[in-house]
Amino acid sequence: MEEQLNQLKAIIGEIYDLNAAKSLLGWDHQTYMPKGGVKDRSEQIATLSRLAHEKATSVEVGSLLDKLDTYSKQLNPDSNDACLLRQVRRIYDKENRIPASWITDFSKIITLGQSAWENAKRESNFSIFLPHLIEIIRMRQEYASFFQPYQHIYDPQLDDFEPGMTTLEVQEIFNPLRETQVEIVQRIAESSQVENKFLYQFFDEQKQWKFGVDVITELGFDWERGRQDRSIHPFTSGFGLGDVRITTRLDPNNLNPGLFGTLHECGHALYEQGIDPAIRRTPLATGVSSAVHESQSRFWENIIGRSLSFWQHYYPKLQQNFQSQLGGINLAAFYKGINIVKPSYIRIHADEATYNLHIMLRMDLEIALLEGSLAVKDLPEAWNAKMKSYLGVVPPDDARGVLQDIHWSGGLIGYFPTYALGNLVASQLWEKMEADIPTISEDIARGTFVSVLEWLRGNIHQHGSKYQPTDLIRRVIGEGINSRPYLQYLRRKYGEIYHIEF
After folding, report:
1. Whole-angstrom distance between the N-terminal and C-terminal Cα of the chain?
2. Which among 118, 135, 265, 294 is annotated as catalytic?
């Protein structure tokens, strides 16, 4: 069996290489590629997507999996080989439902769609993106048809990002959470408001960049195995355990996007950089799911990056960089300012108390689009109505409304719910971490993050995709995803900031 296992590993290594090359082309598309390269790039990515799909669904892979089936049952179920065989079987069975022609066509559509979205957002004109999104939704509906029977048309989309989770399970988590979060936001709105105008003035971009680089270096970002660049919408891409890249977006008139965007993407990168090298160049060598991945980025961005302990260490350094802007603002005022709760148009700028409402809005709209109860042409109007209902604000234009996120242009239908799920998991991990490391707040206040990173590496990062996401969470926390620690975290934190008893 050793020979067959090595043959299978050789093939999946080639598939990994093809997908890494495709991701590299996608990274370049969003960073340095000249605008004239869009059509050629769409063909290149389509070719690599087709080749990877053909290899992953080949008769040879199926035959090797069948021959190794009995052998896999004899292995320790937690061993790398047993986990690899389970994951490859899952991918093989799923990919074989998808025609290669669909993969090729979809790759072209989303590559062109991303460029159209960039133009549409720049012009704040949804009509530029409309025909592309119509095609993307049509193809995602077709994609769902490959996985019939299903309980809900959204299930196959969600499974791409959160394996094994269903639409009903997410809704059962979100429905009561939505009601409670609205109540929390309303209670805060009725209290004395926090001041944050000092964040909206001129902040030199180069100084912002350097400060962010210095911070994530101290958090543990490995510059020998990563880099940072700029993009319209921040993202993280990994092309191997030795090449994990992040991007950020700086605003010269607002400190928040660059500062917290850099922390967010660093959280993703630390996860990828912490995967066990023994599973490199396999489908195990990546984050186990989008929700777990988001738990890492939201953990570093919010639970660590917006904590008082964190800024006890870093605020004097930030003041030194921006003395004229922040020299007269004390730590307590700064801490409250970066944690202000105020409904806003933009998801990535949203505070912790309102953020999940942005996500639930998007999930509702995605489901309606797939079900056909909402026409794509009516999306801007539906978006604004949901914003009014959930957050009490209406975006003044498409750029700050329906066009603000890149995800739909890349075909990522079903991804958004994982952001909110990631918030819940992050709070669950923090609760467990506080119990395991009693000195954690003191460590952070000293600018020492070794204990935090080592805990995450040992419990989450090193495993990559060895286990199903729900299994991994239960191994670490002892329970599945639930909102109790998250709501407790919100009540405690914002109760102190706004002097409210929840």
Report:
1. 60
2. 265
* 496 a catalytic residue: no
For residues 435 and 286, membership in a common domain is answered with yes
Rg (alpha carbons) of the chain, rounded to whole number: 23
Check if the beta carbon of residue 402 is closer than 8 Å to that of residue 380: yes
User: What is the DSSP secondary structure assignment for residue 239, as one 8-state letter?
Assistant: S
Q: Do 137 and 186 fall within a single domain?
A: no
Q: Computed from CA positions of residues 242, 247, 252, 255, in that sequence, does the dihedral angle turn out positive or negative?
A: negative
Name the pLDDT band for 193 (thresholds 50, 70, 90). confident
Instruction: List the one residue out of 182, 170, 256, 260 whose CA is nearest residue 215.
Output: 260
Q: Are residues 184 and 126 in the same domain?
A: no
Instruction: Please tell me whether residues 231 and 275 are part of one structural domain.
Output: yes
Report the candidate in 356, 377, 358 with the shortest Cα–Cα distance to residue 137: 377
Decide if pLDDT at 25 tops 90: yes
Angstrom distance (rounded) from CA 172 to CA 479:
16
Show the domain range for 308: 167-498
d(CA 357, CA 418): 13
Q: Cβ-count burial of 341 within 10 angstroms (0-12 exposed, 13-18 middle, 19+ buried)?
A: buried
Per-residue pLDDT at 1: 84
Residues 42/111, Cβ–Cβ less than 8 Å? yes
Query: Please, what is the average pLDDT of the chain?
Result: 96
Give tens-digit pLDDT for 203-255.
999 999 999 999 999 999 999 999 999 988 899 999 999 999 999 999 999 99
Distance CA 257, CA 277 (A): 33
Say if residue 190 is in the same domain as residue 60: no
Cβ–Cβ < 8 Å for 325, 204:
no
Residue 356 tokens, joined:
């999940």
Q: For 75-132, write each residue's pLDDT tens digit.
A: 999 999 999 999 999 999 999 999 989 999 999 999 999 999 999 999 999 999 999 9
DSSP-based three-state secondary structure for 245: strand
Q: Are the C-beta atoms of residues 459 and 476 closer than 8 Å to each other?
A: yes
Residue 349: the pLDDT is: 86
* Total number of domains constituting the chain: 2
CB 262 within 8 A of CB 216: yes
In this predicted structure, what is the pLDDT of residue 348? Answer: 87
Which pTM value belongs to this model? Answer: 0.93
Q: Percent of the chain having pLDDT more than 90?
A: 96
Give burial (CB, 10 Å; 0-12/13-18/19+) of 443: middle
Amino acid (1-letter code) at residue 40: D
